[in-house]
Specification:
Elements (H helix, E strand, L loop, with lengths): L6 E5 L2 E2 L5 E5 L2 E5 L7 E9 L3 E11 L25 H18 L12 E2 L8 E9 L2 E7 L6 E3 L8 H17 L13 E9 L4 E8 L7 H11 L5 E6 L11 E6 L4 E5 L2 E5 L9 H15 L6 E5 L5 H7 L4 E6 L2 H13 L5 E5 L2 H10 L6 E4 L8 H10 L3 E6 L2 H11 L6 E9 L8 E7 L1
Parallel strand pairs: 4-6, 7-22, 12-13, 17-18, 17-20, 18-19, 20-21
Antiparallel strand pairs: 1-5, 2-3, 3-4, 5-6, 8-9, 8-11, 9-10, 11-12, 13-14, 15-16, 21-23, 22-23
């Protein structure tokens, strides 16, 4: 039986859905971050459970043919990416296998085709950055957390971020540092600057910065705004967001527009999207087009269908669908996202779509009880997946097709199993999309038919 601090030699046989390599010693599974299939490593055990343990690399004895040198200078410390050490081609294979394994193991589907992973940009693809601010050795810094901690790794040039995001972050940190505005300290609850969020409209070149603070009237606020204007003259809009709660949630509920319109715009497939600080929008624009085009394809729209888009956010999938449907109804719980969705429809002169504010679980159950029918239901829930009550409501409504978009293969497979119970629906095909290169995350879109 392995125990903590043991040094072992192990061959990595697979990569988990969290992007960690895994091998076995006498049947005991050992998870080793930053390894890849085919690596032989010397590793130090850091924790053990009854059937598995975790270890960290001490030495790479024989590197896998899939191993490459990470491009990021802080990759060994940062928890933002966990697959940069694997060739991009192998990352695509890993993600397809993660999806396929979940579909079979959790969902119980044996003969459903899981296609090769679709890919867009793999470098500098992220249009959104959220960086915690803190102090390291007396110096104000921003970056990303180390794995399984809230210790900040200073990051000046993130390789997966759009260059505008890096530029904006570095200059705001410079201004905060020069003005000696204190960063927030989680342990004491003291300090002012908590996070810096940046967003880029890749097609429009518009940029947004959101500074998350504990007090909207903080000392030197005016000086900070003046410095930011000087350092970032092309910044489209600056927003101050207030979060004074002891929480891991980044953004608070109150936002104050300092200058600019308080939002930026992005253009995709000739559709203009208005993006506010609290709005959900996919972080990889080209990956989003691949994903949503596949969703539209799976909906098999002819122009005669009525579509419901549950968890619609600011209406991105809804507007893609509206081009080819008779009518689309979007459902979203975040008020600002609903406001943006309505504005997006108006901006694009799309009149066959409407948006309802509320919980998808409650509204779908209500629609089912009223006997409402729609030809297609689109699901794009958060990582936790759908409530079972919503899935049951869909089965009662009996749309001809369900298109399920997910960022979590495990909860996706669980929900697909419920939808397909009693042969109410048939899972026809599954398409992984690499929305998040160099990380263990993968987006998936599935086609189900009655």
């Amino acid at each position: 039986m392995l125990k903590k601090d043991d040094i072992v030699e192990i061959k990595i046989e697979d990569v988990t859905h969290e992007g960690e390599g895994v091998g076995k010693i006498d049947g005991f599974a050992l998870f080793v971050p930053k390894t890849v299939t085919g690596d032989v490593v010397k590793a130090k055990v850091i924790s053990t459970k009854k059937a598995y343990g975790r270890a960290l690399i001490e030495e790479i004895i024989t590197p896998s043919p899939h191993r490459v040198e990470p491009k990021c200078s802080v990759y060994d410390d940062c928890g933002g990416c966990n697959l940069q050490h694997a060739s991009y081609e192998h990352q695509m294979q890993i993600k397809r296998k993660i999806v396929s394994d979940a579909i079979k193991r959790i969902g119980g589907f044996e003969d459903v085709p899981v296609h090769e992973t679709l890919s867009a940009d793999s470098e500098n693809y992220r249009n959104k950055m959220q960086a915690p601010v803190g102090i390291i050795e007396g110096k104000t810094v921003a970056g990303f957390y180390k794995p399984r901690s809230h210790d900040i790794v200073e990051t000046e040039s993130c390789t997966i971020q759009h260059s505008h995001n890096n530029h904006i972050l570095n200059n705001i940190v410079k201004a905060v540092r020069e003005l000696e505005i204190p960063p927030y300290e989680e342990k004491t609850g003291k300090g002012t600057i908590r996070h810096i969020m940046t967003r880029v409209g890749v097609a429009t070149n518009q940029t947004m910065a959101v500074i998350v603070v504990t007090d909207k009237t903080f000392h030197k606020k005016g000086d900070l705004v003046t410095k930011i204007r000087k350092l970032l003259p092309k910044l489209t809009t600056l927003v101050i967001n207030v979060n004074n709660k002891k929480t891991n949630v980044i953004l608070g509920e109150e936002s104050q527009v300092v200058f600019g319109p308080g939002y930026i715009e992005e253009i995709s497939q000739d559709i203009t999207f208005k993006i506010s600080p609290l709005s959900f929008f996919q972080v990889n624009p080209k990956g989003m087009e691949l994903l949503y085009n596949k969703a539209v394809e799976y909906a098999s729209l002819t122009g005669e269908e009525n579509v419901i888009d549950a968890y619609c956010g600011l209406g991105s999938i809804s507007l893609f669908m509206a081009k080819k449907a008779r009518e689309v109804i979007g459902i979203e719980v975040v008020p600002q996202a609903v406001a943006d969705a309505n504005e997006n429809a108006k901006i694009n002169k799309i009149e066959n779509v409407k948006f309802i504010e509320g919980k998808a679980e409650e509204i779908m159950v209500d629609l089912a009880e009223k006997g409402e029918y729609n030809d297609v239901v689109v699901l794009d829930p958060p990582r936790k997946g759908c409530e079972e009550s919503l899935l049951v409501a869909i089965k009662r409504m009996a749309p001809e097709k369900v298109v399920y978009v997910s960022c979590n293969p495990s909860t996706l497979a669980r929900d697909l199993k419920i939808l397909c119970q009693n042969e109410d629906y048939k899972l026809e095909e599954v398409q992984p999309v690499d929305m998040f290169p160099h990380t263990g995350h993968v987006e998936v879109v599935c086609k189900l038919s009655r």
